[in-house]
Design a protein that fits this description.
The protein has 548 residues and is of the alpha+beta class. It folds into 3 domains: 223 residues, 2-Layer Sandwich (Nucleotidyltransferase, domain 5); 136 residues, ATPase, nucleotide binding domain (Nucleotidyltransferase, domain 5), CATH 3.30.420.40; 119 residues, no CATH class. It is built from 18 helices and 22 strands. It has a 5-stranded mixed beta sheet with strand order 3-2-1-6-13. β2 and β3 form a beta hairpin. The chain starts with 12 loop residues before the first helix and ends with a helix. The N terminus is likely disordered.
Length: 548
Amino acid sequence: MALAPEPSERTSPEARGAHEVIASGAATLGIELGSTRIKACLVGPDGVPLATGDHAWENRLEDGFWTYSLDDVWSGLRACYASLVDDAERRHGVRPTTYRALGISAMMHGYLAFDAQGELLVPFRTWRNTTTERAATELTGLLGHNVPLRWSVAHLYQAILDDEPHVRRVRSLTTLAGYVHRRLTGRNVLGIGDASGMFPVDPAVKTYDRRMLDQFDRLVAERRPGLQVRALEELLPEVLLAGHEAGTLTSDGAALLDPSGALRPGVPLCPPEGDAGTGMVATHAVARRTGNVSVGTSIFAMVVLEKPLEGVHPELDLVTTPAGDLVAMVHCNNGASELGAWASLFGRFAELTAPDGAAPDADTVFAALLREALEGDADAGGLTAYNYLSGEPVTGLAEGRPLLVRGPDSAFTLANLVRAQVYAAFGALSLGMRVLEGEGVQIDTMVAHGGLFRTRGVAQRLLAAALGAPVAVGSSAGEGGAWGIAVLASYLGDEAGHDLAGYLDEHVFAGAEAHVVEPDADDLAGYATFLDRYVAGLAVERAATDAL
């Protein structure tokens, strides 16, 4: 095999430095399996991205469940990894073969159940499924702790209640990140943030809550005597904190990720984490009184708490940071996908009307539409929109139908249409955040990230109106969770010297700048009017799910 070419004399010192970092195996790799993209990010010792890779994929609705096949998981990971290696060679003249550390992240929650031989028993049931209402309601009442529809334990208990035949054969449960990590390392472990979306954890002892584990086992024994399900603790992955080593890349794992054989085994891995945890890291929001908003296929806000909440609220998940600190999470199933669908429609129109086929690319179309939204009326001109491609637990809807509703006197302009769609992406989230306000939760900083914020100032300004609080966007806003898990991998072994917040302060975000937008008075008033219509119109959304 020919060696990668050395940088030329004309290559900048920065590029030559990156070449050496990558060639020596000193760079750190993060990979995140998101809802629509698998993304990889390679970073240097200072956390600065050196190369990226990605692969687009989509979930499918099969037999009433949203799912991804495991074949798609691995073909997507291989394509994403190959894309990253190609990008490193294109930018820096070197193809990486090893790394200082590696981290895997993925969408949280859902149901991946395996038998004793490690075979998947039923297709992966993702976070998007809302078929577990009976189980979630019963478990919330039993445990005195909100158990959302998408949590792994809700899926397991619903399968028990439904007498699904596979339940007797379940020998392990995990998340998507945990599954990929186990195949790469052979270790059945999970970062505490991801684990807290499988079953409630006790922040005091940094693992699953013992009292609640016992309550669940007794409940199953009473409700399904003779089922002979193993104790829940035996089915769940071991819980690890950020900074702890979670295994090393095996020969089989390296071949799974890179069939070319260039990737060498032996790379240490950090604990696998969920996209909520990597979002907190990517936005520098792991300390108490900080928070972040992540916008993608779903949208969620995370606020690190100073103390436990007084009540149990169905709108709020209680999860943890990757370091195990308690977090209140407002998770909405529907984020920017419907806005993306409208952008695709207008992009196709631009393509049809472009002279000589010189149509703008998707990013250009999206940016133009977002900027147009700022020209709209503060209340979106009387338009009301719902982005519900799937059910929305925050507003009590088991199914979704995207809707645009307007009255005869509404100002139906492009600017108002786009503003209504952006507002709709934040609607359910702002309703959930009201619950935190009622608990007296204080937030010093709210940071936003995700591709929606690549167009500077637009979605950020409208989100500030929806939250009624300043919103910051940092330079890493578009990198997202792949960069966040790469940073967590970089933290591997440093927990003795710094806590996670201190590590981020000193090694990752020192001197970093963020663009902060304060709520605009007119936007605040306009959004409040829109939200009143949004709440009143939920009856229309419910009727649509019944009729269509």
